[in-house]
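Quick question, first post here. What does this chain look like in 3D?
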Amino acid sequence: MNAQSKNIVVAGGARTPIGHLSRSLSGLTADALMVDALAATLERSRLPKDAVDGVIVGWVGQGFQAPNIARVAALRAGLPERVQSVTVQNNCVSSIEAISSACRFILAGEGELYLAGGVEVMSRLPYTIDGSRASKALRSFETVKAKWGELLTTPDVSVVDAMEEGLTDPVEKINMAGTAEVCAQMYGISRAEQDEYARESFRRCLAGWKNGFYGTHVVPVVRDGKTVLEKDEYPFLREDLVEKPQMFAKAPALFDNSAYSLKDFYRDFGRHVKGKTYQDGMKGSVTLFNSCGRSDGAAAVVVTTAEKAKSLGLDVLAEIKGWGYVGNNPAMMGVAPALAAPVALQRAGVEFGALDQIELHEPFAATVLSIFKLGKEKYGHDWAAKNASGALNPNGGSIAVGHPLGATGARLMLNLAHALRKNPKGRYGMLAACAGGGMGGALVIERR
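> Answer (accepted):
Ran it through. Tokens below.
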């Protein structure tokens, strides 16, 4: 094995605007959006295609229309046939995993320069027929078509919503919003706190668009000479939430309604809310407005050695100092970044207090605010102070921007690197995210 010690850097990158579910980008396939992100990254970084050794793409809702989407996108982007192409799936940290994998390949001596990123088009996640082809109803495609009307009542066949199935943990049988309510109940996070955090995410995101921050790395999606989407869609759809915060109260609590009460929630998942039991008068708190949207989008960054970047004349944004991944209870997956951060920081040789910028994935305001509590209690990491100072998510986060599952990690990297560059005193930055199944990932960079 030709293992090497190298300084690894991020030398450019770009992403598409993020579209909201079933809206502007819903007519485009995941591989088409990934091609957009790769092409924009190549163009903006002025990177010759023949300098690329490989492409690594995170994609959660993997479909057979583009098996190994990294390979499909690489070829459609005009990269050389020889390039290594790998698709990874680690739920919402998939493109952090893609960036980490690029670093590992470089350190293992497999190549010197990779395009790493991720994509998701949640608008196209399918409804699927689940069952064995041994079933009489599924023995051939012709049989399926002929017996289409009978499938819903066929005992050994089920028709499944892949989106809802994928957003429900198969081990603990709890969906992602449910994991947020577990955290809200366990850490005592009120709905008012969650709504205020969400409002600030929208405010910061809209300000970031208005002051030109996102123009540094977001490239419009264009088809046939017409702009399909120029800016992130959801923050502008919800722009009124900033000026009219009373609108947050109109969103019903997901686990406190006539169909499913908080008492029902405690019956089903209270075992995860450590040290608490349901009491009359308790309220549910997670709503659609204090949760991230379901989204479509793609992002990519250039990961290479410092020497290679210099030889190609690339604009180096930051050096990657270390990363870490930690698992936790799937029912409390949202607090996993608090657990992964110490690992990444220790490997990078950086103290939490020395971080000048943090980009933290916001699946739910409840989980972010729980991270603030757990991080302080367990590790002495004052996430809340970073947030109050504007060092954490200064340009908004996933609640406002949206969350195209496989692309979010690379989006965090782009936000982090450009925010660090904008900060005249900035040196160290960290990104962190949770993932369904109980996984947390964090990665530390140093400005260059």
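The mean pLDDT is 97.
The longest helix spans residues 191-210.
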